[in-house]
Amino acid sequence: MGVAPFETMKNWTCLLTPACSMPAVFFSTLLGLSSCVSRELPRSERIVVDIAGEVITVGEFDQFVEGSVHQDEPFLAGNVMEALFEQFIEERLLLKAADDAGVSADPKAVARRLGAIEKAQVPKSQAQSDSVMASVVERQLRIEKLVESRLFNDLGVSDKEVAAHFEANQALYERPETVSISQILVEDKVLAEELLEKLKSDPDQFGELAQLHSIGPEASRGGKLGSFGRGELPLSIEEAVFSLRKGRRSDVVTTDFGFHIFEVHGKTDAESLALDDVGDTIRVELLREKSEVELSRYIEQLKRTYPVTVHREHLSFAFLEWEDGKVAGKTTEDSP
Description:
By secondary structure, this protein is of the alpha+beta class. It is 51% helix and 13% strand.
């Protein structure tokens, strides 16, 4: 029986094709590799960090950045992205600890926080959707609940600590002498002297004359400049205004800006604040400092508890080292 021409053609072509002479398993392997190359993961699905076996993607980090930056920025500098990535890892470590501790956020608390944000009109970027904000708030509340129960419940500041801080930092609690002033600023000395004569006959027209003649940016406000302490004004102006009593006006004062007439609206004398005046403020500040220290220690503990691997090849910015010297891209257990 003769062989059909089509069958002959297939056999001949097969002899010329290397794949026909290869084992089937090897050919299948090549097909698999080719398929893997063609199915490269989209950027958003690439892994940027692995925390104790939990993989976290570029897309999740992008969402974190979106929820953290409260303005529309076409580009964030590398050092900003590096700082955000460090915060992202720390947040995920805290959330991992919250998961293991069974800490959840009350939906009513989430709604209240979102309502407070809306009421306060906190600025956000156009990209921040309501769902993203809800996710950000939910994570914040879980972390707050975790650290309050684990770290902050037992924190306190004693009266002795408050007093010691006050004694060591008394210069911080000195209230300087201040003066509240208005000015008329003109470029012509003759005009300045004419305006001064008008004020001598009618002091109440200072604001009106400032609006009509002053070239200062505060002219529309009647020349009101605000309050200043010692050392905050050019020396020639400081000497003029601090020597005046409340309600008095200066002579014409010449500076590089032009010719000034000043009026003093109010003065406060320098004074040293007492411990009773600032004790509560000191206590809050010391408690904040203690909280920051405890939280930093806790995060370092979590880095040791949950091995972290950073996939730098999927980052668009440099992330070289942990603050404590651990090299990114290695697990914390691998670090020296």
